[in-house]
Amino acid sequence: MLDHDVLSQRLRGPLGVAVSGGGDSVALLIALRDWANSREVALKVATVDHALRNESAEEARWVGRLCRDLDLPHVVLNWHRASDATGNLAEQARHARRALLADWIVAEGGRTVVLGHTRDDLAETFLMRLARGSGLAGLSAMQAVSDGNGIRWLRPMLNTGRSDLRGFLTERNQTWHDDPSNEDDLYQRARTRKALAVLQGIDIDAGRIAQTAHRLRDSRIVVDRHIADLARNCLSQTRFGEIILSKIVFEQAPAILQQQLLRDILRYFSGSIHAPRFEAIVRLHGRILAGEASTLSGVQISGADRICRFSREPALVPPMVAMDERRIIWDHRWTVSVLKPGYQLGPLGVEGLRQCGPRPRGLRATTAHALPAIWDGDEVVATPVLKPRSDISFRVRHFARPDPH
């Protein structure tokens, strides 16, 4: 049931396991406990409570009681969604879940978290992305081993079906608590799960879909190597965090590689693991080749004959927050560090740029407006390059092709 080759790629330290209380994660917990006991591997268990359903708190407590019976340490990680948050709730919850789990296992002295995704999850994700018109990247199977958020993520049950896990639990007289939204047609995954049952009538089942997704993954690995080569040859990055694309080199590559690289650039700026729909990428690609300016996914793209400049859209950077820690990740890309907390961190904006004096040649005003800045009331204390200060540092994350989770 568990892929031991996947588990062998864990990093040192205790092994974290995410358990929601559903059948998949409970089966993972039981099987992983047996595996860990035979190898003297320390297990740590966490449940993320998104507080999106009335039952979620009790389900988290139920997992706690199960772990107590299994003599395993358990914590509940609570997500508090901002009251003014907007946008895709499911994606925000996924981001929060990964961040909470990563911070938790690092605090416990570990660097690896095991997840309970199954062959059915893989097939459902394939169909959902097929409905969105996804290309090779979206239709490829999720990785059994991936790195992200500073830790390693393992999915040792991608070759196991959900029904097999339920059978495993039934044999052990072990109960579980499935999320009722899994049967609610309001949610796309629930509708997809029911559609998959219908497709079995024409011999399209989770196993066959998963097989196709894995083959696409193999193809994607080859394509990704070419995209990485293209990125190295045509991209550069400025000290202000902009990405500069050489169109002369870019246009020599096949169109599909150009489009995939554009997708990765957008994801770099937005911080999202999901790219815009492929149709939007194709339209953007056409505008870039035509030398036209554009905006997509919070990224401003300048139009020119020889180069194309990507920068953050000022209106979508985070608002002002208290700098009550010595180190904060701001707008997904900037690491801001101070020796003495107590300032405010926010965008430089129009007024902040005015305080910094003459704008350097080549720096567009909109790029400057989206830069991080340390404020003391109405005064800019520091900002990258324009107003440096020895006790405050700004470090931008360099562009790297994102790890497909």
UniProtKB/TrEMBL annotation:
It is found in: Cytoplasm. Keywords: ATP-binding, Cytoplasm, Ligase, Nucleotide-binding, tRNA processing. The keyword Ribosomal protein does not apply. ATP binds at residues 20-25. Pfam families: ATP_bind_3. It is an enzyme of class 6 (ligase). Residues 16-194 form the tRNA(Ile)-lysidine/2-thiocytidine synthase N-terminal domain. Its EC number is 6.3.4.19. GO terms for biological process: tRNA modification. The keyword NAD does not apply. One of its GO terms (molecular function) is tRNA(Ile)-lysidine synthase activity. It catalyses: cytidine(34) in tRNA(Ile2) + L-lysine + ATP = lysidine(34) in tRNA(Ile2) + AMP + diphosphate + H(+). GO terms for cellular component: cytoplasm. Ligates lysine onto the cytidine present at position 34 of the AUA codon-specific tRNA(Ile) that contains the anticodon CAU, in an ATP-dependent manner. Cytidine is converted to lysidine, thus changing the amino acid specificity of the tRNA from methionine to isoleucine. NCBIfam families: lysidine_TilS_N. Belongs to the tRNA(Ile)-lysidine synthase family. The N-terminal region contains the highly conserved SGGXDS motif, predicted to be a P-loop motif involved in ATP binding. PANTHER family: TRNA(ILE)-LYSIDINE SYNTHASE-RELATED (PTHR43033:SF1). This is tRNA(Ile)-lysidine synthase. It comes from Pontivivens nitratireducens. The lineage of its organism: Bacteria, Pseudomonadati, Pseudomonadota, Alphaproteobacteria, Rhodobacterales. The gene is tilS.
